[in-house]
């Protein structure tokens, strides 16, 4: 490669990297519901649209909705009780709660903007308070704008990786660092959602200690050799119990 071409590549690569950092810095904003400063590059309207558009396809991946309207209504009732008794009611998000037909995969998750899902495999092991804990946790993800934050972080590392590739041979390394950072941040999201879930339970009249029992259920479901999907995307339940206990003490004394 000619010396001039090499210099141009370095210049372009540095320009792309600089753009990534400038965009990231300009996308900083404070979450009005949690007070945490986040990197977000989409509006709440865009979050809602992503969730609404993705919900049907996601549901089909878990066998669709559970074919019992009474149970569906029950999940919806508990979810909206949590919303109405918490700061969630002040948000613009469109909360909707879905019981999925999958009776093998232990999982619960939320999409941007409000859709919340729980599989029947997990649902059937929970009492009402424990179900409230799981749904409250997922509402916490929505309020925390965790999906939007992960999308913004992913775009940052993708742009950074492109710049590193153009400027040299560091694209793969940068991309790997980005993946590790996303995993670490995601664990922080889970702990924040646990904290919010405890608060929502207390505000709605549920015993927050039931959240600890949820962690024990997840741990037991994993067994010695199997990792349920819920745990694969969340910190180990044992590691979350101590933080949940701290949240219980914090909110009970308010």
| Helix-strand makeup class | mainly alpha
C-alpha geometry: globular
Task: State the separation between the terminal residues, measured CA to CA.
Answer: 66 Å
Summed up, the domain count is 1
Radius of gyration: 21 Å
Number of strands: 5
What is the chain-wise order of helices and strands?
Answer: HEEHHEEEHHHHHHH
User: Major sheet: order of its strands?
Assistant: 3-5-4
Could you estimate the helical fraction of the residues in percent?
55-70%
Strand content: 5-15%
Number of helices in the DSSP assignment = 10
State mean pLDDT (0 to 100 scale). Answer: 78
pLDDT < 50 runs, ≥5 residues: 159-185, 228-232
Q: Main sheet, how many strands, which sense, barrel?
A: 3 strands, mixed
InterPro entries: Mito/Outer_Membr_Metalloprot (IPR051156), Peptidase_M48 (IPR001915)
GO cellular component, one term: membrane
Family: Belongs to the peptidase M48 family.
Cofactor: Zn(2+)
What would you note in describing this structure?
The protein is mostly helical. The protein has one domain. Helices cover 66% and strands 7% of the residues. It has 10 helices and 5 strands, in the order αββααβββααααααα. A 3-stranded mixed β-sheet has the order 3-5-4, with helices on both faces. Strands 1-2 form a two-stranded antiparallel ribbon. Strand 1 and strand 2 form a beta hairpin. Helix 6 runs antiparallel to helix 7. 36% of the residues are buried. About 13% of the residues have low confidence. Its cofactor is Zn(2+). Belongs to the peptidase M48 family. Keywords: Hydrolase, Metal-binding, Metalloprotease, Protease, Zinc. Its EC number is 3.4.24.-.
